[in-house]
Amino acid sequence: MAEERALAGVSEVQKKIRSAFDVFDHEQNQTVDVREIGTIIRSLGRFPTEAELHDVIAEIEEEEPAGFIRFEKFLPTMSRILMENKLRPVPEDLLLQAFEVLDQQKKGHLDPEELSRYLTQEGDPFSQEEMEEMLSAALDPEKNLIFYRDFVSMMTADEPW
């Protein structure tokens, strides 16, 4: 009985992987552009760092990289990542703590220039495109501020399944 449930779980995971992959298989030939792999993985509720994403791609890429990833190579690796619960998002409380460290005056918000400076110059820096994408989601358009509690709540969604 437990084995049947485990197999049903694997089957469900594989269906979700197939569905996410198919969105980017524009030619319907069981391949996607390697540049889409990060988006596919994130759509499945996993959030690799750039280094982790590079490792995943290296693991599934053909011996001679052609810029495309085949589904048959992607499926076992992504199934393992999901079944072993790897590449999980950062918990809400840790994200909130990170924003609170940046908010030294404890105002409950950050200005976009300040956040951009931190995220493009420290640690694993955001690209300009990543920064613009984040600000488009995080910025309160009326006040031109980032109310990070609201942003963190929005960003920490439940599992997609």
From TrEMBL:
Annotated protein name in UniProt: EF-hand domain-containing protein
Pfam families: EF-hand_7
PROSITE patterns (UniProt xref): EF_HAND_2 (PS50222)
GO function term, MF aspect, one: calcium ion binding
Gene3D superfamilies (UniProt xref): EF-hand (1.10.238.10)
Entry-linked InterPro entries: EF-hand-dom_pair, EF_hand_dom
Signal peptide: none
Gene this protein is translated from: efcab2
Domain of life: Eukaryota
Keyword annotations of the record: Repeat
